[in-house]
Amino acid sequence: MWYKYIYIYIYIYIYIYVYIYVYIYTYIEMTSHTQTCITASIWCVPKKYMNCHKVPLPR
I need a surface site. Which of 3, 11, 19, 38 has the fewest CB within 10 A? Predict the structure, then answer.
């Protein structure tokens, strides 16, 4: 049953990685005067993408 610890370790590693990425992304958004569109293609959040490119939300 040792493989369960490997899955837990990978899950925690991915969780920490995503947490750090979101923290850095929000820090860049807060410190920049104009809204940055650098990670619009990578960070696939519809709300952020719509606000960045001025595209109306689909109904």
Answer: 3
